[in-house]
Amino acid sequence: MHTDLVAALDIGGTKIAGALVDGAGSLLVRAQRPTPAREGAEAVMGAVDEVLGALTASPLWDGVGRVGIGSAGPVDAAAGTVSPVNVPGWRGFPLVERVRKTTGGLPVALVGDGVAMTAAEHWLGAARGYDNALCLVVSTGVGGGLVIGGALRPGPSGNAGHIGHISVDLDGGPCPCGSRGCVEGLASGPNIARRALRAGWRPGPDGDTTAAAVAAAARAGDPVAAAAYERAAQALAAGIAATATLVDLDIAVIGGGVAGAGDVLLAPLRRHVRDYATLSYLRRLTVEPAVMGADAGLVGAAAAAIALR
């Protein structure tokens, strides 16, 4: 009988995933439901309860001692609430209290999804063995998390490391967050595609205008598509270098859908990081792709629950 299991939840705008995770990071039981993101708060909570119901029905449930949640943000770990940008029905929603009730009073740890990905990469992935790491999720938005001194540092709200909203262009365009020239406004997938289209890139016969299509064009030698990734890489590098300068990092790990561009993003990113991170104590800083893939959210939620005892 497992006695060290964690129930993990990964909550996003399209799906709510759950798993029972053991002390080695293996996912033993899985459950998933679509997120009814356009419906009200209780409909979304109903989907969470269905996922938890599938987990509690497992004979392994008796070995579960705690619950970890990684959620699209912003989250407020101190208050136990979530307000995901892509789930309009949840604003200040008391998710921790509701999950605690559904699971019979188990302790619940809540972190943002970027922090969860960081916890996973540090536990079992590309940041394993590094005591000081920044991990980034570059996707529809740009999130992240920090490991400092060998420990996950989610901060009091559970959002520390949210690199997407560091300003890297003082005269840049307004960001929906209220600031200006944020990393996310230059480096997220939709913004890479927008920049390429504005500069004259045109999709192929399939009409695909995603960042992945821009990456394919860049790989095939399209200079406008390559320039859009170059600019995204520069923004990411400026944010990474600023963070490394502040907290003294060993490694930056890049995950999320946009990181699927591979060297189209990583080659200019490494070059720009070398340009920006020039102080002597930053020269050891390396940039590596994430390796945990789609399970990072669940593994990381479990890791966060273990770490935040």
Provide a brief overview of the structure.
With 309 residues, this protein is an alpha/beta fold.
Overview of the structural elements:
Helix 3 (113-124) crosses helix 9, helix 5 (189-198) packs across helix 6 and helix 5 (189-198) packs across helix 7 (223-247). This protein has helices at residues 41-56, 95-102, 113-124, 183-187, 189-198, 211-219, 223-247, 263-276, 296-307; strands spanning 5-11, 15-21, 27-34, 64-71, 75-76, 81-82, 108-112, 133-138, 142-148, 151-152, 251-255, 286-289. 49% of the residues are buried. 36% of the residues lie in helices and 20% in strands. The longest helix has 25 residues, at 223-247. The protein is α/β, with parallel strands linked by helices. The strands form 3 sheets. Strands 3-2-1-4-7 form a 5-stranded mixed beta sheet, with helices on both faces. It is built from 9 helices and 12 strands. It folds into 2 domains: 5-117 and 295-307, ATPase, nucleotide binding domain (Nucleotidyltransferase, domain 5); 126-290, Nucleotidyltransferase, domain 5 (2-Layer Sandwich), CATH 3.30.420.40.
Chain-wise SSE layout:
Elements: E1 5-11, E2 15-21, E3 27-34, H1 41-56, E4 64-71, E5 75-76, E6 81-82, H2 95-102, E7 108-112, H3 113-124, E8 133-138, E9 142-148, E10 151-152, H4 183-187, H5 189-198, H6 211-219, H7 223-247, E11 251-255, H8 263-276, E12 286-289, H9 296-307
Parallel strand pairs: 1-4, 4-7, 8-11, 11-12
Antiparallel strand pairs: 1-2, 2-3, 5-6, 8-9, 9-10
Helix pairs in contact: 1-2, 3-9, 5-6, 5-7, 6-7, 7-8
